[in-house]
Predict the structure.
Amino acid sequence: MAKMLKITLTKSTIGAIPKHKKVVKALGLKKLHHSVELADTPQTRGAIAKVTHLVTVEEL
């Protein structure tokens, strides 16, 4: 089984540039402190890299 990542939205997207808001939405995050578990793929890592200042990541 592939490794999983727990991604939590820790900062608000208010004031973020529109591209970053779209990345957060694409990751499946909706509200502050909302968490999702996604597979650890290069695509997921790339999206996280764009919004590292808004999210926290844990490896499961």
